[in-house]
Structures are given as structure tokens and as C-alpha cells.
Design a protein that fits this description.
Layout lengths: L16 H9 L12 H14 L4 E5 L2 H12 L4 E6 L3 H4 L4 H4 L4 E5 L1 E2 L2 E2 L1 H6 L11 E8 L10 H13 L3 E6 L2 H7 L15 E4 L10 E5 L8 H7 L8 H11 L3 H20 L6 E2 L7 E5 L5 H7 L3 E4 L4 E5 L6 H18 L2
Parallel strand pairs: 2-3, 2-6, 6-7, 7-8
Antiparallel strand pairs: 1-9, 4-5, 8-9, 10-11, 11-13, 12-13
Helix pairs in contact: 1-10, 2-10, 8-11, 11-13
The structure holds pyridoxal-5'-phosphate.
């Protein structure tokens, strides 16, 4: 079977060989289940090292579940969560955050995918009004859905504003490693030290086979976590297989290597495509995605060669995403296909 590499998503790629090795290494013999095995305990210890001693980690199967669990941990049924209008929470989770997370989402307009304090403030005008769902938490996607990254100052300001308003803070960090590396911070500096309460910490987009980690930094939210995870059907019984992947990912800085590579590939891609006439790059390329508008009649021909998604069907803004296994030759080949399509359609 030949699966050509494209630019569809960082979850189109396979697993990193070191992750597969880690999976195989825990496959021998028997081990206790439900998070009580040695590997799971070791992984919990490693998360504490990375995020701070008060950290509790709960592994789940996917990113939607991690988000839903974070919301459920924070919210009562009358609560609301402020999030970006384009956030995965709001757009791509089939209303699970509202139904299973027990809250109302308040989508906010964004600038380059980022929430601003100005917009967030508007959502608080009816705080304390019994007719209105009560704002409980701000959810930030870092990096954003548009591949942009909040700067350290932007994060600090937004989070300290949220805290001053009595809001909890959640990070949808499906690709948090990329932001952490780009900003030259540690995981702890970019979350715990800024006052973040909960993180959906990604694995699948970064070279794991599957698995995400709900990282609970606020001690008050810990007690309910094991029960809520179980109710949501997200307690892995063979938990060592998720834990082993995260151990391999966080140990020996594999996370840095993967983040650096996928982001470097996105930079290469941007440089090669932005000079092609009629390709209009639309977003800063901070993380591992390039967004660009191309003529509609280019799309089919290109997608047949290198798969990708049209992000906006009205403008034909496309998303080209790189991954841990993207190669320079993929990028050069894609840029060539773009140029050839341009020459054929507009000779
Ligand atoms: C920012 C973000 N959050 C959450 C998710 C959800 O992950 P999953 O598809 O594993 O449920 C995704 C998946 O694309 C994502 O990009």
C-alpha cells in the first residue's frame, strides 16, 4: 500500500518510529490496568516535572474528549465558556462541548485566529444576571486554528485579564509543543506560571498513534477528574499504551525535534509558494500550517497530487499542513505542482 504524503493534516501522518518503539516495548507480559501500571506512574511523574509538582494528568483517547473533559471539570450547567469563533471547540466537535461539557459556548471574533481582550470583555457584560449563562472559563487555542501563535505577552495579558475577571483558563493545546518551542519557553512557563488551569495537551498531531493528555494544573479541579473521565468513556484500560507514547514523546526532547521539524517545513513551504503569482498567503506562518487563497480551478488538479483541505469554501483559502514526516522533496514537489497548474490554467 502506498500512501503518498500530502498536506491534509498533521494527523494524516503515521506515528514517529520512536513512538512505535515505545509501544512495542510495553507489549510484553502483563501489567495492571487503568493507570496503575509502572509506565503510567512514570509518565505522571514526568508531567509533574514538566508542568510543576501540583500537576495531575489524565490520559484520554482524543482531542475532542480532552476538551470536553476540561469543560466538564470547570463548569456547572449554568456556566459559559468564552472561545474563539473558529475554535475546534466551537466548530468541529459536533456540540459535544455543550452537551457533554455541560456549558454554553460564547464564540468570540478573532484577529488572525487570536482572541483579544476587547472582544472577550464584551461577553461579560451580563455577568451576574440570572437570565444569562455565567462566564466561567476562557479557552485559548495555542497555536490557533490558523497556525498563528499568541506571543508570550499576548498570553500573559489575556490570562491575567481573565483571572482579574474571576475566569478559569483552558488551553486547547493540540499542538502546544509547537508554541512552546517557538516562544522559547518551558511548558511550565507557558502554562502553570501564567495561571492556566487546564490544558488539552496534544499527542496525536505530534507523532503519536493516538492519545491526548488532560493536564490539570488547578488543584481545586483535580478531585472530580477520575470520575468524570470514566463517565465520558475515556479511561483507557490498557493505559500503559498511551503512557508509553507520552513518555517517549516528552523524554529526550522528542517533542522538540518533532515541533522544530514540522515548523521548519512550514516555513520552507511558505517561502516557496508565496512568490507564485495568484497564490495569496493569508496568515502569518508561526506554527506548522500555511494558509493561502488560490484560484478555485486549481484546486482539483493540485489535490489529486497532494491532498489538502480547502479551509474556506467561499474564498478558496486552503490549509497546507506539515507534519513530523514532511520532507523537503514534498514541499518542492508541491510548489512545482502549483507553478505548473498556474502555467497551464493561466498560460
Ligand atoms: C486545535 C484542535 N483541538 C482539538 C482537536 C480534536 O482532536 P480529535 O480529532 O483527536 O478529537 C483538533 C483536531 O484537529 C484540533 O486541531
Amino acid at each position: 500500500m502506498k500512501n503518498p504524503r500530502g498536506f491534509g493534516s498533521d494527523n494524516h501522518s503515521g506515528a514517529h518510529p520512536l513512538i512505535l518503539e515505545a509501544l512495542a516495548s510495553v507489549n510484553e507480559g502483563h501489567a495492571p490496568s487503568y493507570g496503575t501500571d509502572e509506565i503510567s506512574v512514570e509518565a505522571h511523574g514526568l508531567f509533574k516535572q514538566k508542568f510543576g509538582a501540583q500537576t495531575q494528568v489524565q490520559f484520554v483517547f482524543n482531542g475532542t474528549a480532552a476538551n470536553v473533559m476540561c469543560l466538564r471539570l470547570a463548569c456547572d450547567s449554568f456556566h459559559s465558556v468564552l472561545c474563539a469563533d473558529i475554535s475546534h471547540l466551537n466548530v468541529d466537535e459536533c456540540a459535544a462541548p455543550e452537551i457533554l461539557g455541560h456549558c454554553k459556548l460564547i464564540p468570540l471574533k478573532t484577529l488572525n485566529g487570536k482572541i483579544t481582550i476587547e472582544e472577550a470583555r464584551k461577553a461579560l457584560v451580563r455577568k451576574g444576571d440570572q437570565h444569562y449563562a455565567q462566564p466561567r472559563m476562557l479557552s485559548i487555542t495555542q497555536p490557533t486554528e490558523l497556525g498563528t501563535v499568541y506571543t508570550y505577552e499576548e498570553m500573559r495579558n489575556l490570562i491575567s485579564w481573565a483571572k482579574s475577571e474571576g475566569l478559569l483558563v483552558h488551553i486547547d493545546g493540540a499542538r502546544f509543543a509547537n508554541a512552546t518551542l517557538l516562544l522559547g519557553k518551558t511548558f511550565k512557563e507557558l502554562s502553570t506560571d501564567l495561571g492556566v488551569d487546564l490544558i488539552s495537551f496534544g499527542g496525536t498531531k505530534n507523532g503519536l498513534v493516538f492519545g491526548e493528555a488532560v493536564v490539570i494544573l488547578n488543584p481545586d479541579l483535580k478531585r472530580r477528574a477520575p470520575y468524570i473521565r470514566k463517565q465520558l468513556g475515556q479511561l483507557p484500560s490498557k493505559s500503559r499504551f498511551v503512557a508509553a507514547q507520552f513518555l517517549a514523546y516528552l523524554k529526550n526532547d522528542l517533542w522538540k525535534e518533532i515541533a522544530a521539524h514540522s515548523m521548519k517545513m512550514a516555513q520552507h513551504l511558505r517561502i516557496l509558494v508565496e512568490d507564485i503569482p495568484q497564490v495569496k498567503v493569508t496568515q502569518p506562518t508561526d506554527s506548522n500550517a500555511v494558509f493561502a487563497i488560490i484560484p478555485q480551478d486549481w484546486v482539483k488538479n493540485l489535490k489529486d497530487q497532494y491532498f489538502f483541505y480547502v479551509w474556506d469554501e467561499l474564498t478558496f483559502e486552503c490549509r497546507w499542513m506539515t507534519s513530523w514526516d514532511t520532507q523537503l522533496e514534498d514541499i518542492q514537489g508541491f510548489a512545482k505542482a502549483l507553478s505548473q497548474t498556474q502555467a497551464e490554467v493561466n498560460p
